[in-house]
Amino acid sequence: MRKGSELPTRQGAEEKRKHLPDREDEPPAKSEKAASRRQHWLHRDLRVRFVDKLYKRGQYYNTKMIIEDVLSPDTCVCRTDEGQVLDGIREDMLETLIPKVQDKRVMVVLGPRAGRVGHLLSWDREKSQAVVQLRRENRVVELHYDAVCEYIGPTDSDDD
């Protein structure tokens, strides 16, 4: 067996792994973007915005709704504010929703703190970032809009 024939294969495998960083010491923006590509964020009791213009001829486009049930990591059942139940909604049809008022409850949906619940302290629309006070950690974190979502679930949960 020739040494030269093994090297390109091993080197190719190394290069493939490089684009999936999983290190905590990277700048937050870079690690959040990497996490958002491979981490699913759907969770029951999140208030989300429907962004698919083609589904039902755009009938629900830009509609706010609540995730009622998560069927798979990237599929859920949603209920509109008007009470319509939508089944089989894909994650890519939705986007996170940031409350318009301070002190509303939010859930971190991406990154190492995913699943934690806190209160929205402030936000910066230009930077698309929210400042959140996490419950039970007594910590304030700054997160991208994609990493946090309005949460209407139970107040006292062991999951947060």
TrEMBL record:
Residues 26-35 have a biased composition (Basic and acidic residues). Keywords: mRNA processing, mRNA splicing, Nucleus. The keyword Nucleus applies. Residues 1-38 are annotated as: Disordered. It holds the Pfam family GPKOW_C. It is found in: Nucleus. Its main location: nucleus. It comes from the Eukaryota. One of its GO terms (biological process) is mRNA splicing, via spliceosome. The keyword Nucleus applies. One of its GO terms (cellular component) is spliceosomal complex. RNA-binding protein involved in pre-mRNA splicing. PANTHER family: G PATCH AND KOW-CONTAINING, G-PATCH DOMAIN AND KOW MOTIFS-CONTAINING PROTEIN. Belongs to the MOS2 family. This is G-patch domain and KOW motifs-containing protein. It comes from Myotis myotis. The lineage of its organism: Eukaryota, Metazoa, Chordata, Craniata, Vertebrata.
